[in-house]
Protein 1
Amino acid sequence: ELTLDVEVLRAEFPVLGRRVHGDKALVYFDNAATTQTPKAVLDTWVDYFERYNANIHRGLHRLADEATQAYEHSRDTVREFVNAEDVREIIFTRGTTEAINLVAQSWGRSQLVEGDEILISRLEHHSNIVPWQMLAQEKGLTIRIIPVDERGELDMDAYRALFTSRTRLVCVAHVSNALGTVNPVAEMARIAHEHDARILVDGAQAVAHTRVDVQTLDVDFYAFSGHKLYGPTGIGVLYGRLSLLEAMPPWQGGGEMIRTVSLEEGTRFAEPPHRFEAGTPAIAEVIALERAIRWVTNLHFELLEEWEQRLLKHATDRMKGIDGMRIIGEAPHKAAVISFVVEGAHSQDIGLLVDQFGVAIRTGHHCAQPLMHHYGLDATCRASFAAYNTLEEVDYFVDALQRVVTMVRD
Ligand code: PMP
């Protein structure tokens, strides 16, 4: 029988052995901001520099060949990870933010015209809002907002009603970083396509927690970051439907993305995905990302989801016992994220004080100010879990939180 042996996998993360503020064992509950990195991924990164550091694609020598093979092998692992049909649909970017900007600047600038409409949900991270506002300003587009209800779920009737003959694109997070809400992206994609619109899904908070299949979801673009997936910073992925990518102009110009360059006759561009990867990429990070994907896949998503849901339920049940506690966002289908405020206490004070117990949580607007304002808040505290967190850590956190709340409310 398969089980998730949390103690064994914790041992793979050197940082989890750290003590902070003197002798406090680190309890890391800021996984929605960034996950920690297992030794296997760190070793893969170092191994690249120690054995075959070289620039890719153009070199004929041994090291360049090895680096190129490893880089392109990672692309195929990513393809398999999200079940894309074709490896040419996988573009490496710096992260989710850059992936979304790529779609806005390439697809958006070339395909959208004045008066076209984009639907964006109220629970988006700023990185799935601001690039569209910038484009809307440049092009004269209209942005319409998919509303969120009190529980933190998208209002699907309102969503259907927002479509007009001018709707061209839907932008939505698979999982909300601020609330944990899992959005019905497959259904949203179906509705978007009925209206001949495209859909871009921000998967930054999804890929480390649930199996993603871009063909089953039937989405047009899907973006995510390596550093929320037990991998390095500085690397992310854009999946794009091949027929769309083939029609998209380059975004950045430079080396790697061309077929031929002539000062007299101009430049002919490479085919996707290379057309969208100008310059020397983050080679080591791409290779380490592959290792991270293999690491998380080896945990088995069914077991991982079951474990994280147990952590979520245990934490939610216990936190509700704290006086003045208000959990923000209680969608029935949630990832392991708990946003909360405590009546009579500032979120920042809570964050600073639980840190003194060694517990890392996040406080602030979580780059989702429109969503915060929907709840009449400027900030919340957020605890977010990953594979290596334990029920004992949850208990320790809730006990610390209880003490902190008693302290600040007195
Ligand atoms: N979208 C969501 C839902 C996120 O949680 C984040 C990271 N907080 C991003 C986008 C941006 O990711 P990155 O900073 O890695 O580009």
Protein 2
Amino acid sequence: QSITTDMATLTRQVKKFATDKKLEIEMLKDREEYRREFLGNVSHELKTPLFTVQSYISTLLEGAHKDKVLRKKYLERAEKGVERLVYIVEDLDMISKLEMGDERLNLTEFDIVELSQNVMDLLEIEANKKDISLSFDSKYFKSIMVLADYEKIQQVMINLVMNSIKYGKEGGSTEIGIENLTNNKVIVRVTDNGEGIEKQNIPRLFERFYRVDKSGARSEGGSGLGLAIVKHIIEAHDEKIFVKSTFRKGSEFSFTLEKV
Ligand code: ADP
């Protein structure tokens, strides 16, 4: 009797061991696949700006440096390329930390209205380049305290407002609004009247490296990581992110936060 029981237990253990190993192998395979895809994307992203920088420097070395006007123009373009590389590398650093779960949230209480105003001040120069007005919905000028990671929420706001400028139209506008929700939450909205997003592209927006316009021709194109970073940060806070958009009319990105 006891031998049969032991055999049954042993068989069960062996089966469990085999299942666990299979799961572990699947997980490692997924991770390997992820790493391969990620590396492929990274080198693809870095190639364009690196090529730009390289070609301007080569042209300068080949003689363009003798012409004062060309020298300035090409050096400025090379600098732009390097700037883009820096952005991309910073975004890559951020997304890999977030995806590995290495980043801890540093929760503090702060005024989200004040943070919104700081972000608008920070991006005013960018907005001016396209004559886009940044405004704050004046209904909510009072302070609203939230509990969240200040630096990370600042990053979220920068990415969203920066996108509203990048994909906004000349002379357009971006508005930040904050509203109290009933369940001890607030919702922060960033609304633009820019190019909008076609319905079929909306579900993929938050994927790493996803861009609606894949041509790469857009000069102000970022890393394609901005919204993936935003989603990670909001989800790490156990909060929600929403997007509403009408093609050629504009977009609204919003997210919730916990009120103090
Ligand atoms: P990118 O570096 O390309 O801006 P993001 O992850 O920030 O990467 O955004 C992904 C894509 O979503 C963008 O390439 C763009 O096509 C679209 N997008 C993001 N924000 C907006 C917006 N406010 N209006 C229109 N399209 C947007």
